[in-house]
Write a structure and sequence with these properties.
It is built from 22 helices and 17 strands. The chain is α/β, with parallel strands linked by helices.
Length: 591
């Protein structure tokens, strides 16, 4: 008998790839490590496809699923991961109701330029034996006219996947647009029937590099260098230059330092989303523009959305020229953007400022490492003043036995210095945000994160994503009591415990909404609400905010005295280092 007559063993048969499987494989092929999901009846094709791939021993071809018991936590986690790594992740939510549960987190991803690929199912459209057809009354209830409209104005791109289109193309397009300046969320939908369709596609065959910003050309660099060289006191205003994105944050921060020292320029971090400039540097000019503008004769806006409030005390004098270097100088995502700019430049600010610094050195116009600038800006920085500066306030409050936001922030700063030089701090303290900014002596690029939006409740979920993005760092969330409650703390604590992402949460618990009280007093200082001390701004009785973390075996404590702060923080950090999430409910002076 010849070899040709021998029957070869049959290859194991396998069902054709579905669109759902192709989408999941495409996510992983294009760099998605995690799918942060709150799954529903619309996701059955995805869940079946994932199990089928794992059963075939090919689980590495899919992203890891991170179950989040609330969609806000899921999107916050994806935002936190992207803020640490610069890489877009995926979020899966349940039809219209799950999309609505994204809530304020989609606003934060939009304003904070977080690259996120959001997938939501749609109600089925067919009946009978068609795979994925309607089989429950809920499929009628969840069928809406315009599901995309819920998030349309917050997304860079949105689409419905419909066969016979290539699902790989939709994933690639969503991730590419999410990663293109201005970065932000994208949104794709599909029915169960569409996801169950068999497809024949080449998964991962496309490029999702995205459009990268470029520095200014030589002529523009020459013009900027001339303007800067002629100024005696230039100041840079930035918010996002040090954020993770197309460039490495360390390179961006280094570029800004090089420019500031060459130009004798002060640097103001206005409403910062990241650490853009070392907080202890002598050229750091604080976080408020008003004092810096009083000294400046040239203002350089470098990746900032709200450099000041027009017609306010923080606005610049009319005779001070304003230069803007930004990948999006027109700020097209803002319905109203009333900032007078004299010299707008569409370019990547970090390499542009570095090029200007080099040009200043080439022409001999550069300073000696910012020597003169230190005389101009040195007293405006957050750590200026020595014994007469912020430390004096902390010492006074401690001696009086007062547990104030300044005392708590100083204790956190000391604890980080002593136990965790590699910490990543998330700041969502709202009305105490500037106390935290001015009290943490952070210098390492990537060590500070803020959502850059106004949707409270970001930090609990974002901390989970940040820890997954940088497992070796201690992730510390500083949150107000209102922010913590908004952040679905039970869902966030469970996600942290379930997915080995322990973090430390410190709650600045003042038993109320200080932002509500402050806004009311500013608008109606002599009104009836002020006379009554704005009772609607208070929480009575006080929350026990450590209790939410008991859904997992977390380390928790309530701190009510300055004398207990250092020990509580040290114990909590040790617990996190050992793999246990920790929450400290710190009862600061009430509003």
């Amino acid at each position: 008998m010849s070899e040709a007559d021998v029957d070869e063993p049959d290859e194991p048969s396998r069902d054709p790839m579905t669109a759902a499987e192709a989408m999941l494989r495409a996510m992983r092929a294009y760099g998605v490590e995690y799918v942060f999901g709150n799954f529903g009846t619309d996701h059955t094709p995805l869940l079946e496809a994932a199990s089928r791939v794992r059963e075939a021993g090919e689980g590495a071809a899919l992203p890891a699923f991170v179950t989040c018991p609330h969609e806000g936590v899921a999107l916050g986690a994806a935002h936190g991961y992207a803020a640490v790594t610069g890489e877009p992740q995926a979020v899966v939510v349940h039809v219209d109701v799950g999309t609505q549960n994204l809530g304020a987190m989609v606003h934060n991803a939009h304003r904070g330029n977080a690259p996120v690929f959001v997938f939501a199912g749609l109600a089925p459209v067919s009946y009978g034996d068609h795979p994925g057809a309607r089989d429950s009354p809920v499929h009628f209830i969840q069928d809406v006219f315009d599901q995309e409209g819920i998030v349309r104005q917050f997304c860079r791109w949105y689409a419905e996947y419909r066969p016979p289109a290539d699902p790989d193309e939709y994933v690639a397009r969503g991730l590419e647009v999410a990663s293109t300046p201005r970065r932000g969320p994208t949104y794709v939908t599909a029915t169960r029937e569409a996801l169950e369709e068999p497809v024949d596609v080449d998964v991962g065959s496309r490029s999702v590099a995205g459009v990268r910003p470029t520095p200014a050309d030589d002529a523009t660099v020459d013009r900027l260098a001339s303007l800067v060289g002629d100024a005696d006191a230039p100041v840079v205003v930035t918010s996002k230059l040090g954020a993770a994105g197309a460039a490495d944050p360390a390179e961006s921060v280094e570029s800004l330092v090089a420019f500031a020292e060459a130009a004798d320029a002060g640097v103001v971090e206005a409403f910062p989303a990241a650490l853009n400039f070392p907080r202890t540097h002598d050229l750091h000019a604080g976080f408020a523009t008003g004092p810096a503008f009083e000294r400046a004769d040239l203002i350089v806006l470098a990746d900032t959305d709200v450099p000041w409030v027009p017609e306010s005390e923080g606005a610049p004098p009319a005779d001070v020229p304003v230069v803007q270097v930004d990948v999006d100088p027109a700020k097209e995502a803002f319905p109203q953007w009333d900032f007078q700019v004299d010299h707008p430049v569409r370019a990547d600010p970090a390499p542009t400022l570095r090029a200007v610094a080099e040009r200043l050195r080439e022409t001999g116009a550069a300073s000696d490492a910012g020597t003169a600038g230190r005389e101009t800006w040195g007293d405006l920085g957050p750590f200026a003043g020595g014994e007469a500066g912020p430390s004096a306030t902390v010492r006074e409050h401690r001696e009086a036995g007062r547990l104030t936001p300044a005392v708590l922030t100083a204790a956190v700063d000391d604890a980080i210095d002593e136990h965790a030089g590699d910490a990543i701090v998330l700041n969502e303290t709202t009305t105490n945000i500037f106390t935290v900014l001015s009290g943490l002596s952070l210098d390492r690029p990537g060590s500070y994160l803020f959502s850059h939006g106004s949707g409270l409740g970001w930090a609990p979920g974002a901390a989970v994503g940040a820890k997954l993005g940088d497992p070796d760092s201690l992730v510390v969330s500083l949150v107000g009591d209102g922010s913590y409650v908004f952040g679905h703390p039970t869902a966030a604590a469970w996600a942290a415990g379930a997915h080995d992402a322990p973090t430390l949460t410190v709650v600045y618990n003042n038993s109320g909404w200080n932002a509500v009280k402050g806004a009311t007093l500013r608008q109606h200082p002599d009104g009836d609400a002020a006379a009554a001390d704005v009772p609607e701004s208070k929480f009575a009785p006080t929350f026990d905010l450590s209790h939410a973390a008991h859904v997992v075996d977390a380390h928790t404590a309530v701190v009510e005295s300055p004398a207990d702060l250092d020990g509580a923080l040290s114990s909590a950090i040790e617990a996190v280092r050992d793999g246990t999430p920790a929450v400290l409910d710190v009862r600061i002076e009430p509003i």
